[in-house]
Amino acid sequence: MKYCLFIIISFYFWAGNHQQKSNILHIDIPEIFVDSGESSTIQLMVKVKEGYHIQANKVDEEYLIPTTLVINSYNNIMIVEQTFPRSKKFRLEGSDEYLNIYDGNFNISILFNTDPHIKKGIHNLSATLQYQACDSKRCFSPKTINLSIPIKVIN
What is the pTM of this model? Predict the structure, then answer.
């Protein structure tokens, strides 16, 4: 059955490739303020357009493309942990297996520490979010969103 699901998803991926939708995913980055030498949490607010979903950060099958967030290293700002929400179960039409997905609105939390010697001012973390969007019948080609996450060190 796993191979049948793979063939179905592959077909939908191929068939939907030229119909890749834009505006399926939107990310809001709030203002982040922190004192030097302190910790804080970034809450990336992700909004998936109604009628669509994206694969979860942890998928059960290796052929599925998980949602990932890669944050480039930055002097004096250390990423401690990323936390993705609990996934939901979803079944594509024509399939018997369930996928782990995110839909609607959710947050990705990023806990970070700053070095005590970090300079006051705005520091931009560069990151990429990779995801694969699907509707109830097909999955689209994977997308990557480049992010700049400004962190304002105030003291």
Answer: 0.81
Instruction: Flag whether pLDDT at 17 surpasses 90.
Output: no
Residue pLDDT, tens place only, 54-73? 999 998 888 889 999 999 98
The predicted structure's pLDDT at residue 73? 85
Per-domain residue ranges for the chain?
Answer: 2-153
Locate the DSSP E strands across 3-142.
25-28, 32-34, 39-48, 53-55, 68-71, 77-83, 88-90, 99-102, 105-114, 121-131, 133-134
What's the pLDDT score for residue 112?
Answer: 97
Q: State the CATH architecture for 2-153.
A: Sandwich (2.60)
Tokens representing 101? 């997905």
Measured between alpha carbons, how far is 151 from 142 in angstroms, rounded to an integer?
28
Interior/surface letters 47-84, b for 16+ CB within 10 angstroms, e for the rest: ebbeebbbbbbebeeeebbbbebebeebeebebeebeb
